[in-house]
Amino acid sequence: MVESLRQSTPAEREQWIRDASYNLFNLRSEQVFIDLLTDSGTGAMSDRQWGAIMTGDESYAGASSYYHLKEAIRDITGFEYFLPTHQGRAAENVLFSVLVKEGDIIPGNAHFDTTKGHIEFRKATAVDCTVDIARNIEAEDPFKGNVDPEKLEQVLKQTPRERLGCIIMTVTNNTAGGQPVSMANLRAARELADKYGVLLIIDSARFAENAYFIKRREEGYADRSIRDIAREMFSYADGMTMSSKKDGIVNIGGFIGFRDKELFRRASTFNIMFEGFVTYGGMAGRDMNALAQGLYEGTGYEYLEARISQVARLGDRIHSAGIPMQRPVGGHAVFIDAGRFLPQIPAEEFPAQRLAVEIYLEGGIRGTEIGTLMADRDPVTRKNRYPELELVRLAVPRRVYTDNHMDYVAEAVKNVWERRQKITRGLAIKWEAPIMRHFTVELGLLS
Ligand code: F0G
Predict the structure, then answer these.
(1) Given this model, what pLDDT does residue 436 score?
(2) CATH code: domain of residue 292
(3) Which one of 58, 169, 279, 435 has the fewest beta carbons within 10 angstroms of its own beta carbon?
């Protein structure tokens, strides 16, 4: 599918972003030239996926599309049982309805915000045990998404067994900058899960990109296929949640994979309540067909090579101008270090959001803030949480933009860098929601 893009003038963008209360989620897509808000659901489906759409089976129960998807999931992940959901956070909602209760502790390697949201909503606590080097933004470490096994063991040791809901390993680690988790690290997490008798769940949104990095960076995997590597990754887990909108290359969809039939059965009840019957759960038959095809395309080596190289191209161009950013470049996005880009703006004035707004004003490019706004308030004290890093994420949709578009983005970011000293103030919150505020927050520009 090809779509036209619309350019705009700086004056138009100034008006539009003011009308959007300086929240990039509030912009209309026509007001955006290059949309790097997310790589989620924004990919372009292939001819074969569109073909599969045409042969979708819309039976309420037992549709052939369900079985196509079941086959693909079993083949690629090894999980025998699965439940379709309408997207990744729905998979979290259903699975956590079984696994997470009030007072529980859920350790992992930097939970994504919806994952954390679903944990905190249940009055449980997500504990981030990511390796310290992830916070050393310039360090060229190959697996900065890893969990720190010592930190993880500490949490497992200190927490009574009945309060350990599960361990969640997110691959790639989105919050840490789209950084991969090594196979050795997944194996170590599995050993700890066995030692302390707790379930290990993989948040799999970008599992294929993670497998690509393992193939390219981890000893012993260069000659293994992506699918073979993915299977080994999943072999260390008891279950998975999936946002199919990323590495499934579909516009909507998700699922949960299970090894254990009993856990699958318990989750099925919640799936029927929240999502739909177990053989469609929030997805149309045609969408399940497209996903079955997308899972194969998303795990193709040539595709992954082209996609990840495109993201690296954008990152390398920005980095070569001296702009501080997360290194090495992650799988799906470039993460610019807004804290060092705009050191004159204090964390209370949301420097990463300010930079995201400025990049929009410069080139009509929409990125997203991963900093104090997204970190939200502590659920108990209601005080702002200040993360160590203030980042702007430029996430690249799959199979949508050309390298020429990426070069345009890099030039625009460089232009902002050139005039960074003139940006003296940040933003103030005018209204915010009690949880996951960054999606709907309304802000004002300080002057
Ligand atoms: N897990 C991870 C690691 C994610 O990145 C996301 C979504 C989800 C779970 C939730 O999935 O959106 O299908 O409900 N990430 C998107 C992003 C929104 O922009 O990074 P969902």
Answers:
(1) 83
(2) 3.40.640.10
(3) 58
Give yes or no: residues 262 and 404 share one domain.
no
Cβ pair 134, 142 in contact under 8 A: no
Please tell me the predicted confidence (pLDDT) of residue 323: 98
306-340 per-position pLDDT tens digit: 999 999 999 999 999 999 999 999 999 999 999 99
Instruction: Give the C-alpha separation, 42 to 3, whole Å.
Output: 12
Confirm or reject: Cβ of 40 under 6 Å from ligand 1: yes
**Best residue among 36, 112, 335 to mutate for probing ligand 1, ranked by most atoms within 8 Å of CB:** 112
End residue of a domain, out of 298, 333, 354: 298
12: phi then psi, degrees, rounded to nearest 5: -60, -45
Show which of 243, 277, 298 is a domain's final residue. 298
Q: Distance between CA atoms of 434 and 195, rounded to whole angstroms?
A: 38
Task: Please tell me the distance from the alpha carbon of residue 257 to that of residue 390, in angstroms, as a whole number.
Answer: 34
Same domain, 395 and 341: yes
The distance in angstroms from the start CA to the end CA of the chain is 43
Whether the pLDDT of residue 86 is over 80: the answer is: yes
For the CA of 245, the closest atom of ligand 1 is 13
Domain that holds residue 315: 10-32+301-445
pLDDT of 130 > 90? The answer is yes
pLDDT bracket for residue 2 (50, 70, 90) = confident
In a domain, 39, yes or no: no
With a 6 A CB cut-off, is 245 part of the ligand 1 pocket? yes
What angle, rounded to 10 degrees, do the helices at 149-158 and 183-196 form?
10
Please check whether residues 173 and 61 belong to one and the same domain.
yes
Here the CATH number for the domain that contains residue 329 is 3.90.1150.10
**Residues 264, 306: one domain?**
no
Smallest CA separation from ligand 1 atom 20, residue: 38
183, 146: one domain: yes
d(CA 74, CA 82): 9
Domain assignment present for residue 5? The answer is no
Let me know whether 306 and 395 are in one domain: yes
pLDDT band at 115 (very low <50, low <70, confident <90, very high): very high
**Beta bridge partners of residue 167, listed in sequence order:** 200
Q: How many domains does the chain have?
A: 2
The amino acid present at 322, given as its one-letter code, is: G
User: Nearest residue CA, atom 13 of ligand 1?
Assistant: 88
